[in-house]
Amino acid sequence: MTIFRRVGAECVADFREDEVRVLRKVAEEVVGLLTDGFDREDPVVGRLFPDVYPEDVKNSAEFRRFTEGDLKTAKIDQAGAVLAGLPEAGKGEVRLDTESAQAWLRAINDARLALGIRLELTDDTVVEYELEEALEQDAGSARVFQLSVYSYLGYLQESLLEAVIGANFRR
Prior knowledge:
Elements: E1 5-7, E2 10-15, H1 17-34, H2 43-48, H3 57-85, E3 92-96, H4 98-118, H5 127-137, H6 142-170
Antiparallel strand pairs: 1-2, 2-3
Helix pairs in contact: 1-3, 3-4, 4-6, 5-6
InterPro entries: AosR
Protein name: DUF2017 domain-containing protein
Organism: Catellatospora methionotrophica
């Protein structure tokens, strides 16, 4: 699996073709969710855009009216940063400056939140156990693939975060 490392002022990783394919698909799905598929009733949208005042519908709607457009644009741009940073050849090196690394971290986080909602994961869920159980039931199921992607995104996020944080400690 790909691990980000610090090289000078950049976070660098060598991606395999299957990893690029998965990241491209995930980022495209996030963009689709936030554009054509944007539905306030979708639990994923609710998680990515939580009510600021859950007990006050009027003020929450008013806050959303003033902030949702900018937040949506930022999330689309972050997913776009992932798409722009991926190798075009299908595999290869990714080099992220600090700003791009931050955008990738936020985009991966959004993708994990969305996937976690779709998989009905909770704070109490142990993903490794869920994956083991899904493998026992049907190793070729969509759930096995989705749990694997969720785990991979967490691993990648942690790797990138360690590269970013490591750089901040050395300054």
